[in-house]
């Protein structure tokens, strides 16, 4: 990533562009450009493609970008979606299996990694946590992106990792819910049916109003670009928002569960 960033900076400067000018051309802030150039942030495909146009179409960025996609810690089927997350203006998630990666604490995540089969060694566990922690920066570094989560109540009731891990997890989720750009709703177990029974889903919208969806299963993930399918999933998510607890009631339920531990 540092090498890619250095190449990007050299091409930008050769084109006579400041970071702000380059950012205006590719649709990203000068701070994002700086983070990519310094190797602190994974570039996404949109920045690469627009960056090529802004720097003379040398092909250097386009040819080197696929090598970056092989970073450890992210599953191969998830990388395309992870790149889009970096630029999304809305990102909505419904989860019924486990707490989404963007909301996990380190202790909760390491519990999942430790019991994964086939077993992971210490280096692999560390790489997965580093990648997950990097993704979590999105919540605070993209204050203009709207994040929404609908989580099944039983995800907390399971007490994955034990009571201490769950208590810390609930406190962390309550803290994240205080961010102005984040909405978290709980789907209570007393809700006998709802629009998301077919499984988890993620929905996002890009700055140029393109909408995509992502559904993940056992060792696989489906990236969905078909507008009709995305529209159907958006309809289901919208219905779930009305079927889940309100934002206030969701926080009250989490606080009660924390007190019960």
For the largest sheet, list the strands in their spatial order.
3-2-1-4-5-6
Number of H/I helices: 13
Given as residue ranges, the uncertain stretches (5+ residues, pLDDT < 50) are none
* Measured distance between first and last alpha carbons: 43 Å
Main sheet makeup: 6 strands, mixed
Considering DSSP H and I runs of 4 or more, what fraction of the residues is helical? 40-55%
Chain-averaged pLDDT = 91
Computed Rg: 20 Å
The assigned structural class equals alpha/beta
The number of strands is 6
Query: Can you tell me the overall shape?
Result: globular
- β-sheet strand percentage: 5-15%
> Which series of helices and strands comes N to C?
HHHHHHEHHHEHHEEEEHH
How would you describe the overall organization of this protein?
Helices cover about 50% and strands about 15% of the residues. The protein is built from 13 helices and six strands. The longest helix is centred in the C-terminal third of the chain and has 17 residues, at about 225-245. It is an alpha/beta fold. A six-stranded mixed β-sheet has the order 3-2-1-4-5-6, with helices on both faces. The N and C termini lie far apart (about 45 Å). α2 crosses α3. The protein is globular. β4 (about 200-205) and β5 form a beta hairpin. It has helices spanning about 1-15, 20-25, 30-35, 45-55, 60-70, 80-85, 105-115, 120-135, 140, 155, 165-175, 225-245, 245-260; strands at about 90-95, 145-150, 180-185, 200-205, 210-215, 220-225.
């Amino acid at each position: 990533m540092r090498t890619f960033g250095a190449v990007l900076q050299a091409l930008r400067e050769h084109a006579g562009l400041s970071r702000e000018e380059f950012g205006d051309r590719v649709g990203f802030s000068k701070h994002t450009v700086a983070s990519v150039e310094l190797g602190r942030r994974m570039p996404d495909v949109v920045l690469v493609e627009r960056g090529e146009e802004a720097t003379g179409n040398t092909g250097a960025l386009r040819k080197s970008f696929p090598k970056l996609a092989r970073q450890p810690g992210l599953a191969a089927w998830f990388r395309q979606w992870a790149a889009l997350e970096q630029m999304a203006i809305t990102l909505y998630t419904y989860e019924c299996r486990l707490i989404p990666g963007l909301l996990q604490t380190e202790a909760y995540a390491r519990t999942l990694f430790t019991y994964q089969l086939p077993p992971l060694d210490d280096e692999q566990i560390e790489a997965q946590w580093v990648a997950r922690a990097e993704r979590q920066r999105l919540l605070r570094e993209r204050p203009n992106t709207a994040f929404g989560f609908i989580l099944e109540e039983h995800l907390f009731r399971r007490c994955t990792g034990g009571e201490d891990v769950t208590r810390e997890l609930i406190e962390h989720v309550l803290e994240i819910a205080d961010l102005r750009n984040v909405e978290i709703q709980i789907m209570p177990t007393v809700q006998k049916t709802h629009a998301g029974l077919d499984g988890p889903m993620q929905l996002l919208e890009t700055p140029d109003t393109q909408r995509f969806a992502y559904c993940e299963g056992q060792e696989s993930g489906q990236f969905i670009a078909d507008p009709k399918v995305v529209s159907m999933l958006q309809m289901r998510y919208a219905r779930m928002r009305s079927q889940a607890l309100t934002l206030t009631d969701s926080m009250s339920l989490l606080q009660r569960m924390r007190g019960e531990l």
